[in-house]
Specification:
84 residues; mainly alpha; 86% helix; 0% strand; elongated
């Protein structure tokens, strides 16, 4: 099993931010497509979607990545105590 360190934290945060960013842009696009099929108006502002996804992705990704890292660190500590 890999040791939990700061390098892992940075990779985890980057991954979480990236995944949330893509998911939020996709959600905005899908919402616009659904509205288009319902009322025949396609209103999708790329600039607004990317800016909002960036803000929400950074915020959520930092919190999620740091939380997962802390959980993994605690699990590593618990496993180390158990093996002694």
């Amino acid at each position: 099993m890999e040791k939990i360190n700061i390098k892992g934290l940075v990779k985890l945060i980057f991954s979480c931010v990236s995944i949330l960013y893509v998911a939020i842009v996709f959600a905005y696009l899908m919402a616009s497509v659904i509205v288009y099929f319902k009322i025949d108006i396609f209103e999708f502002d790329w600039k607004e979607a990317f800016a909002d996804a960036f803000r929400k992705g950074i915020t959520g990704g930092l919190i999620l990545g740091f939380g997962i890292w802390i959980k993994a660190k605690l699990q590593e500590r618990k496993n180390k105590k158990r093996s002694r």
